[in-house]
Amino acid sequence: MAAPPAKRKPVFIKVDQLKPGTSGHTLTVKVVTSEPVKTAANRGGTRPTRVAECLIGDETGTIIFTARNEQVDLMNPGSTLILRNAKIDMFKASMRLAVDKWGRIEVTEPANFEVKEDNNLSLVEYELVNVVQE
Fold first, then answer.
1. What is the pLDDT at residue 44?
2. Higher pLDDT, 133 or 30
3. Which residue(s) pair with 98 in the sheet?
4. Mind listing the pLDDT tens digit for each residue in 18-77?
5. CA nearest 56: which of 20, 22, 86, 100?
6. b/e map of 32-68 (b: 16 or more CB within 10 Å)?
7. Neighbouring residues of 69: CB distance < 8 A, sequence distance ≥ 6
């Protein structure tokens, strides 16, 4: 039986390096605010879907994180989190960070950085441009 392949070390990036349409990001961030957005009935009718928009960031900037269900409970203002396999979703022409079922959110030791709140990447509007290949 072959040995399992060696696991890659995660490459941590900063908030200001996030770009539209990218995924697989690993970041250490602090939660600035957490606002519940909606609680919608689930299609199966079992338990409702909870959604919260949370402003998270590091020393390079901030971005809005869309937390769903159990993730909402981890989004306490002031807590430090490690987001693994996070992806960028576009919502109304602006970037939102999300962690789906393939990613992970871990509460970690308090980080020793101050969040740079005057560089909110979710306030930047993007326009989809089709490039014609000749």
1. 63
2. 30
3. 66, 87
4. 999 899 999 999 999 998 887 766 666 677 788 889 999 999 999 999 998 899 989 999
5. 86
6. bebeeeeeeeeeeeeeeebbbbbbbbbebbbbbbbbe
7. 49, 50
Parallel, antiparallel or unpaired: strands 49-58 and 61-68 = antiparallel
- Extract the tokens encoding 1: 């039986």
- Phi, psi for 71 (deg, rounded to 5): -60, -30
Is 5's pLDDT higher than 80? no
Rg (CA), the chain: 17
Residue with tokens 């490039």: 131
Chain mean position to CA 119? 16
| Residue of 118, 94, 121 lying closest to 13 (CA atoms) | 121
How many CA atoms lie less than 13 Å away from 114 in the CB half-sphere? Answer: 3
- Residue in 14, 21, 15, 19 with CA at minimum distance from that of residue 89: 21
